[in-house]
Design goal:
- There is one protein chain.
- It is built from twelve helices and five strands.
- By secondary structure, it is mainly alpha-helical.
- The chain folds into two domains: 139 residues, no CATH class; 90 residues, no CATH class.
- The strands form two sheets. A three-stranded mixed sheet has the order 3-4-5.
- Strand 3, helix 8 and strand 4 form a beta-alpha-beta unit.
- Helix 3 runs antiparallel to helix 4, helix 5 packs antiparallel against helix 6 and helix 11 packs antiparallel against helix 12.
- The longest helix is centred in the middle third of the chain and has 19 residues.
- The protein is elongated, with a radius of gyration of 28 Å.
- The protein starts with 19 loop residues before the first strand and ends with a helix.
- The protein binds zinc ion.
- Zinc ion binds next to loops.
Length: 252
C-alpha cells in the first residue's frame, strides 16, 4: 500500500480524481478500524510495546500486520498470542485456524492441553471447520495417552503402577516402614511402595489425563496433596516434600 506512487501535485485536487482529501492530502481508505490500526505504529516506537488485552483485538492487529507486510510487528504480536492462548486456547485456536496461521494454531493447540477438552459452544468455533475441530480433539487425546503412558500399568497387571524409567534410588516411598504398601513396577523390577504415594500418583495420573501438560504434574496442589496424605500416615516427613518435588521434576 505504501509503495504505491504518490499522486502528482497537479492532480491533487478533489475535482480531478475520486480520492478523498484532507486539505491537499489524499486519504487512502483501509478496511481496518481505528482500534486495530492504532497499535501498529506504537510497536515501532522505543519503549514498551502496547499490550493487546483482548483476543479479537490481538487477532485483528496480527491480521493487519501480516496484510501490510509488517513482519517484525507481526512477530511481536505473535509473542503476545502465546500468553493470551494460555488463557483462552479454544477461542484463539478457532481464530488462528480460520486464517490457516500454522504457528498460532500450534501454540493454541499446545495451550489447550492445560484445560479439559472443549465441549461447550463458543461463538468463535463457528469459524472452525469440523475437520480442524476434530483434529484438535484428537491431538488432546493423543497427548493425554502419551503423557500417562510412563506411569500407567497395563490392563490386567498385578502391580498398581508402571514407572520403568524410575530406579529404586533412595525414594522415601520405597523405604518408609510406616504405612501399607502396594506393588509397583520400576526399572529394576517390582517393588513395594507406600500406599499414600501410589494413591497420590494415581490422582496425578487422573489430572494428567484431563490436562496433559508438565504444569499439571508440577502444580503445587498435586505435590502438597500427596505430602499431606503422607504426613497423615508416616513420620518420614523430613524428606517427603523434597522427594516429591524431585520426582515430579524428573517425570516432566
Ligand atoms: Zn514413613
Amino acid at each position: 500500500m505504501f509503495s504505491l506512487p504518490q499522486i502528482p501535485d497537479d492532480r491533487k485536487r478533489k475535482e480531478r480524481d475520486d480520492a478523498k482529501y484532507v486539505g491537499d492530502t489524499p486519504v487512502i481508505s483501509v478496511s481496518e478500524d481505528n482500534e486495530t490500526l492504532e497499535p501498529l505504529p506504537r510497536f515501532c516506537y522505543p519503549g514498551h510495546d502496547p499490550e493487546l488485552d483482548k483476543g479479537e483485538l490481538l487477532y485483528a492487529v496480527l491480521e493487519a500486520a501480516r496484510k501490510y507486510d509488517m513482519e517484525e510487528i507481526a512477530e511481536k504480536v505473535s509473542t503476545q498470542f502465546v500468553k493470551y492462548a494460555e488463557k483462552y486456547p479454544f477461542r484463539l485456536f478457532a481464530l488462528a485456524s480460520s486464517r490457516c496461521w500454522t504457528e498460532e494454531v500450534k501454540m493454541a493447540a499446545k495451550a489447550s492441553l492445560l484445560y479439559p477438552v472443549q465441549t461447550k459452544y463458543l461463538e468463535e468455533l463457528d469459524k472452525v471447520t469440523v475437520g480442524d475441530f476434530f483434529r484438535l480433539q484428537d491431538h488432546h487425546l493423543r497427548c493425554s495417552t502419551a503423557a500417562c503412558s510412563p506411569i500407567e500399568s497395563p490392563v490386567g497387571a498385578t502391580y498398581s503402577l508402571s514407572l520403568t524409567w524410575l530406579d529404586a534410588h533412595h525414594w522415601v516411598w520405597f523405604t518408609c516402614p510406616h504405612t501399607l504398601s502396594q506393588q509397583v513396577r520400576i526399572g529394576t523390577g517390582n517393588l513395594f511402595a507406600s500406599k499414600w504415594w501410589v494413591d497420590g500418583v494415581r490422582t496425578m495420573l487422573n489430572e494428567l489425563r484431563i490436562r496433559p501438560r508438565g504444569a499439571t504434574v508440577t502444580h503445587p496442589k498435586i505435590i502438597s496433596g500427596m505430602a499431606l496424605m503422607a504426613m497423615d500416615m508416616c513420620s518420614c516427613s523430613d524428606s517427603i516434600y523434597e522427594h516429591l518435588t524431585s520426582f515430579t521434576e524428573l517425570f516432566c
